[in-house]
Amino acid sequence: MSLRSAELEVVEYKTHDIGHAVGRLIHNFAKYSGIVGTEIWPRMQFQLLSLIRDQIPYEVTWNAEGMEIKFSGFLDPRPRIKDSQLVYESPEPSCVFFEQPGEVSPLVRTHIGRVTSAIAQEMQEVYCLQAERDPLILRFPKSLYSKRIERFKVIIIEPARTDIPQIFQDAFKE
After folding, report:
1. Number of independent structural domains in the chain
2. What is the pTM of this model?
């Protein structure tokens, strides 16, 4: 077995603030967008807000006419190389908007794009979310939405190899 060390990041988020922002995002789409399918989102939000409140790892995808929105948060830390060190970083909670242009007419697609951009800009300005494009992603930055970030040095133990031929495995059983 070989041993290596890494840094593990554990983040405790301000779940009330994230839940409030996600609730406002859902409300804005349902009330102001005019996009078919978003009118039912407020009835579906309680389960999502419960996952956020309890800081349970989740990935939830909702559909509407010409678009899909994927909410994800509190997922397991992901490995990254930072300053030549292995670091397991907790990904920031996010909302990703996917256009589904083949489903709707160009006029509806333009409307969806404009409404989504306007709501995303409002969320960015009011809730200080970070925005990225292609696809549109709204992230809850750790610097603003975390209660506490802890980093630990951990030892990584390499798992036993399973690709050793059976004849060699039998030789070592005795």
Report:
1. 1
2. 0.83
